[in-house]
């Protein structure tokens, strides 16, 4: 009986190791293959690019991108999305389904300018949840993801390694 239990445990461990790294990775076309088909900006708009790192942590979670309270895109691991919006003030929020907290920033966009944001894991939330469970995550309160504005040079370099996230993105 002990051999059967060991075999079952080994099989389950093998299955977890084999399938766990796949997570929710972006599966769309690469940025380099679609970059020429991304339309030019309208005269009164600005563009925002959101890119997500390829870290294994939170790989099963989708980062939801909200602009002014409206969910405009779902961002998977290793993916990118973009949104064109009228210039002016915009409230950006990143959260994850069924998780506590979120990350927020307000920016004032200028006409014709492109903004780049890198979305990554909120390490303090993961640590708090690991040690304190739901209570720890609630106490930390920052959500599963954080994001930061990055330079155009860094953004363009990052985009070379990303795939369009969430299938066909409507702007």
Helical percent range? 25-40%
Overall morphology: globular
| Amino- and carboxy-terminal Cα gap | 59 Å
The number of helices is: 4
The biggest beta sheet is recorded as: 5 strands, mixed
Lateral arrangement of strands in the main beta sheet? 8-7-1-4-9
Order of helices and strands: HHEEEEEEEHEHE
- Mean pLDDT, to the nearest integer, reads 75
Topology:
Layout: H1 2-19, H2 31-34, E1 45-52, E2 63-67, E3 70-75, E4 79-86, E5 88-95, E6 103-109, E7 114-121, H3 123-140, E8 145-150, H4 152-159, E9 163-164
Parallel strand pairs: 1-7, 4-9
Antiparallel strand pairs: 1-4, 2-3, 2-5, 5-6, 7-8
Q: Mind explaining what this structure looks like?
A:
This protein is of the alpha+beta class. Helix content is 28%, strand content 34%. The protein contains four helices and nine strands, in the order ααβββββββαβαβ. It has a five-stranded mixed β-sheet with strand order 8-7-1-4-9. The relative contact order is 0.22. About 20% of the residues have low confidence.
In short:
With 171 residues, the protein is α+β, with helices and mostly antiparallel strands. The protein has helices at 2-19, 31-34, 123-140, 152-159, and strands at residues 45-52, 63-67, 70-75, 79-86, 88-95, 103-109, 114-121, 145-150, 163-164.
